[in-house]
Design a protein that fits this description.
This protein is 13% helix and 36% strand. By secondary structure, it is mainly β. The strands form seven sheets. Strands 2-3-7-14-9-12 form a six-stranded antiparallel beta sheet, with no helix packed on it. Strands 16-17-18-25-20-23 form a six-stranded antiparallel beta sheet, with no helix packed on it. The chain has a four-stranded antiparallel beta sheet with strand order 19-24-21-22, with no helix packed on it. The chain starts with 8 loop residues before the first strand and ends with a helix. 43% of the residues are buried.
């Protein structure tokens, strides 16, 4: 059986009415014709949605095959999973996304079929001058008040919103009502779940004059009304001056690193997801012939050990991994 090495995957594209073409024009993804490319799923193992290894001896394997055949090499000291627990994607919002909310793990377990909950975080890659993020309810809106405005078609009156700047990060725990606004290009890390309850779709209709399906009852029951308005994360310093912590929660850790000097990632007996937001990186033992560049993603298995990360220029990248008990004890 081969040993695991740094893994790159072929992106999988999702096309929705709110998508555009910046996955190609900004992130250099190989899109086909059309102007509605909304999401590039970079790392996914969720039922039939599978990332495919792009290079090396395991090229053509699905991520779930990697999970099944190499649990110790992939997860290290962490307990093995039946499927990969995180999903990483890029999103291009040419139009506003629907206002939605995701269940937590307990709520997701009661769905048919059962699914994980969906806690996620966004990093803003590009923001147009008029772009808005919607995150949380304005203070004073409880379930009854929100239900009243939903029935009137004026859900937007309840929503906390702000203009996000490029580089800002927003944490979206399960139960927080939210929407990505038009003009935003976003990197997203989330639990590996595809469960979304759509509360409001801006009163849009399709070509036949029909509205999109909504899940108003489920949304009203899933929203955590204790959250209130959400704001961008305040990056926290780490022991490495080139690295800052954007999110630490029980589902994932999201760090951002910037620099042009060689560094190391790994060696802690857990996997790491790398995503380049600026510049390019060369990673030791990467079987691909070229550096990892803007918009590209890599999964470093635990068995990779301490990988050399060599920026070829001033670069910025995300490092995402599962938290340890020690991480959470100092949260």
């Amino acid at each position: 059986m081969p040993s695991l090495y740094p893994l790159r995957f072929k992106p999988t594209f999702r096309r929705y009415l709110w998508g555009g073409r910046r996955l190609e024009t900004v992130l250099h993804k190989p899109l086909g014709p059309g102007d509605d490319y909304a999401e590039s799923w970079e790392i996914v193992d969720h039922g039939q949605d599978q990332s495919i290894v792009a290079h090396g001896e395991l090229a053509g394997s699905t991520l779930n095959q990697i999970v099944t055949d190499f649990p110790e090499q992939l997860f290290g000291k962490q307990p093995p999973f039946d499927s990969f627990p995180l999903l990483f994607k890029f999103l291009d919002a040419k139009l506003d996304l629907s206002v939605q909310v995701h269940p937590n793990d307990e709520q997701g377990s009661r769905l048919d079929p059962p699914d994980l909950g969906k806690t996620e975080a966004w990093v803003i890659l590009d923001s147009e001058p008029e772009s808005q993020l919607y995150a949380g309810l304005k203070r004073g809106f409880d379930q009854a008040a929100l239900a009243r405005e939903v029935a009137r078609g004026t859900t937007e009156l309840c929503l906390n919103s702000f203009h996000p700047e490029s580089g800002q990060c927003l944490f979206i725990p399960a139960g927080l009502v939210h929407a990505i606004g038009a003009g935003l290009l976003v990197a997203e890390i989330q639990q590996s779940s595809d469960t979304t309850f759509r509360l409001f779709d801006w009163n849009r209709v399709d070509g036949n004059g029909e509205p999109r399906q909504l899940h108003i009852k489920e949304s009203l029951e899933t929203i955590n009304y204790d959250f209130g308005p959400a704001a961008p994360q305040t990056p926290q310093p780490t022991s490495d001056p080139s690295r800052e912590r954007l999110v630490l929660c029980d589902k994932f850790v999201l760090d951002r690193q910037t620099g042009d000097s060689t560094t190391e990632i790994g060696g802690d007996q857990r996997f790491h997801i790398l995503a380049v937001l600026k510049g390019s990186l060369r990673v030791s033992n990467d079987p691909a012939p070229s550096a990892l560049t803007l918009g590209q993603t890599m999964l470093l298995p635990a068995a990779s050990g301490r990988c050399q990360i060599e920026p070829t220029e001033q670069s910025t990248w995300l490092d995402i991994y599962l938290p340890s008990a020690k991480d959470l004890s100092v949260e």
